[in-house]
Amino acid sequence: MRASCQSFDDGTLGAEWPVLDALRKRGLTATFFMNSRHLQSQDAVKYPRRYAGFEVASHGASHKGFAGMPEGQVRDEIETDQKILGDAFGQVIDGFAYPYGNVPKEAADLVKLENQLRALGLIYARWTGGAKDYAPPADFMRWKPNCGFLAPVEEFLAAPAEETVCVRMSFTHSIGFARGQISFDAWEKILDRLAAETAIWNVSMRDYARYVMALRALEKTEAGLRNNAAIAVWVRVKGRAIAVPANSTLAWSAL
User: Cβ of 161: how many Cβ atoms within 10 Å?
Assistant: First the structure.
């Protein structure tokens, strides 16, 4: 009932190597947002094996603000990342983080942009503003971090987690470690705590979003609960956790 997602922006390879090693050493994962055309991510794209087992997602090909960006340029920024990053890392690039947290201020403009991002195959977009609690975002196209990067794990464990799969989501820039702006030792202590806590699911942003969306899409039919997703999800019935297999119906009698 609890998940932890960590993400890093810009793909600065030299700064990310120790980050990748620290995560892999503890069996943890994270999401790395990159720019396929920008210099800051160029080295990372040349060493895709370093990111094996981690999610790579779009940060806009040129790391430009998206507020007011023409539709054609939006398409180019995303499709270029999907092509170059997808080919390099062997992944479907369906996640996105707004460069500079730059989103349209007008509601109508934001909705128009989000519809275009969905049409381009994106399933979530990460903002920079802070969410107020650990609940999953109502709309994954408006996914906001909900804790500081070095926030104590105990606060998250103390939050209610009975009605939904709550999430601890944070982001930073790996270069912050190299510049001494973030304590690497303090972060490793957070990692040790996360790795030791069996009640927390350490997961990429993509896999968390897919899971919660599949859970929300469960259908109540005459035969039982229908799961049309390609992944299994779990429901709680009278204190028991029961799996609803992918692309199948769980009979009411089994609940």
Answer: 18
